[in-house]
Amino acid sequence: MTLDETLVVVDATEGLGQALQAAREARQLAVSQVADQLKLSSATVTALEADDWERLPAPVFVRGYIRAYARLMALDGETLLDSRPSADDAEAQDDSPSAETRARSRGLYWWIAGAALAAAIGGTLSILPDQ
Prior knowledge:
By secondary structure, the protein is mainly α. It folds into 2 domains: 16-93, Orthogonal Bundle (434 Repressor (Amino-terminal Domain)); 97-127. 65% of the residues lie in helices and 0% in strands. The longest helix is centred in the last third of the chain and has 29 residues, at 99-127. The protein is elongated. The termini are far apart.
């Protein structure tokens, strides 16, 4: 199946999902056809068109889906991404560990590495013959 290169103009004030849906409908494509082309499930395409971010995976994947869908529909993916609410991106950043947590993890790592090294040295010394 090849998609025609018909220029589709979408209203910039529409939501991202509405723009994708309008472009798909202008090309008279079913959700399943778009899903097949993008190698996504129909549920994922439907969630993108409904701006249902909670049913979608991590924001990094969703950005890729939007770019691919836009490219398939001959739309500017970056413009669509700019119109996307950034709540998901802020939420993803909030989930990242703080500098304090990372420092604590590094300290624990070095403590465990030091204990393992001491055990290895002690074990080696205990099996060496006395001279």
